[in-house]
């Protein structure tokens, strides 16, 4: 690893050895040296005009978050002391009441002069630029005269000792606010830069009204070489519309040129006078680029907007992407996709996206790429701005939801085919002999219901797969309601092979899947599914389709009805109480047993033992806010990409386990269990090119080497492995190495690490919308692996689900549960633009999982905006605010923690019923208070815990 050099400042550099103690204690002597030297060797320091550094200034933007404490102490941290922001009517710190109106922070309980308030500014600063500091400070408490207040930088280096650097000082007295000013400059960036205010003697409170740190413009900075990092600059792209020619732009592996027109005058700028082209591209990653180092700040969300098109090489349409190349201080490289669009040669197209940097980069370059070689990329303008905060979604108000009411007209066919029409040229007629009972999943939602009529629609003369019976339901659909779909279907004779039958919706000419089933016999089959519409449509049609042309089919009892989720939750709470709780009796013993009877007992659960985990990625752990939320709210982890073969061995023989190692180190440090995802991935598009080029013999060797390398390295460290991901949706290894390769992968992994539970893992198992991975197919697949000796130890259901319906999900779990294997939701996410609906969807899935006896764990596929595989599925906004879905998750976690209180019985006992997990009990007798801990494990019989007081 490259060793970082110490940073140089315009002010005094003080390389102070970090103490071995927990909080990096610094001595009074050190503090005094800083005070004495604060005017030495700072010839380059400049006190800038107050208008430049004022918070209201339009000329420079403050890199300090929450600079005036209007958001309380958000983004600030007290350094080994306490801090608070007094309310407007607070009686605290009366000495400053007359100073001025507004918020301020009070830093108290100071036992050392170096204790104060700090903020990490690593991502807000750049090497080679000069920064001005202005803070409004005061003091309060037992003080005669004045006290020094210092601004200091703490510099944390990766491979050398932590150092401290003086920035500025002022002398403050009670009842007045003073302005502390200073400047600093870094020649290189350390791993972390923390700004803090300190200085008054122990026992004296430090008061802080505002802090402003601004980057001086290039004209004002004698050493600055670029623009400043700011959160509020309109556009961090320099020369965004090429008014200054090609200045600040360059080609990434190609040439760039400027044009006022192209294509014999057919291509002209959409706006402005000129546009740029990236030409002579020989690779898809070639394109036009601009370095934005020093102008982009970590932990801030940015919006990207570009006007683009393509030209030449007979390519009329192509994927065009905006990408960030990021280099970290330890020379790690990252490529971050931030936007993509299907660009054409016909017209200009807008490319839009968002991104956020977790860590502190040493270099950042944004570039356009994507089209095949020989195709020019044209760029008219590029804008990157700090993303405006999107106001939270309003709670949808749904009047008269009419839960359980079928919106299909003449579903019973009592009036022939009235209300129905044929889509296409097929014919519809009514027959009898279909089931009289509701399909099971509908029955679970609707409860007691009148029998079906036994009539069905016979669909004949079909010349296209999409032909079938249809109805218009535009006026019957309510936005944001979740609808369950249920029907009986059957295919006629003459079919060759399995036939797919689908209940579909045409929503303004967009296909929406309402449920599918695969049929290869002459029995009636249940279709179950769901859908939801969140934007006002002009036309909604429901239709049934799917079998091959010429194949007749029958439809009976089609039901589409809104689902009352709250009613289902009541049932799930009762179910949860039965399977996730246990009766517990605490038996107390004491030398003073006479006084034990009647003693007060308070029981509080500290940790639920059920696994709730999340996907994390290497880049996430550079963001301390992400890590804080993760370790507080999850007890399991799975890595997004860092364990996959294409990540650990992108080129043959070039192994990269560093990212996975660092993620695993984080998990182990916080006692978080980890799943290994995944050893192989059966879908061909995920397989590296070098693997695809191997002969059968070499591929077999490579597969064996992969298992040996990965599982041996991490033996005993991953509790689970997804052995061969998505075998129901891909077959690369099976196609090339034969059917035996799949069970052999399980056997080999088990031989190396017998302690790991080996999982199958697939998607659309639980939602009724994909016949390839329906529960029946999954069961058949698992049994096949076991029959060939594959030690399958667990069933992974990914859970990337839309508009979930409890009975549909529960039905899949019931079917899979007959195998007796533990079931995990391994990649759960739900998606809705509306946070409240997203919260409801998440609650549906978590309650169904937690209430089902076969489910033994739930992994979310991420939780932080911009780091999710699906849009509108996050629980935490990009800059750290927990949204409604996140709040719902935290509410459920609290609901699933037990509490009880009461008194010790005459028998010396106290009983309660509680969730499995860790507990603390407090017993207050006549003479003492005793704290003890205990565990409640799974079990059917009551648990007796003996506690000696």
Automatic annotation (TrEMBL):
Residue span(s) of domain GH10: 590-892
Family listed: Belongs to the glycosyl hydrolase 10 (cellulase F) family.
Keyword match Transferase: no
GO MF annotations in UniProt: endo-1,4-beta-xylanase activity
InterPro entries: CenC_carb-bd (IPR003305), Galactose-bd-like_sf (IPR008979), GH (IPR017853), GH10 (IPR044846), GH10_dom (IPR001000)
GO biological process, one term: xylan catabolic process
Keywords: Carbohydrate metabolism, Hydrolase, Polysaccharide degradation, Repeat, Xylan degradation
PANTHER family in alphabetical order: ENDO-1,4-BETA-XYLANASE 1, GLYCOSYL HYDROLASE
Name assigned to this protein: Glycoside hydrolase
A Pfam family: CBM_4_9
Entry superkingdom: Eukaryota
Organism encoding this protein: Trema orientale
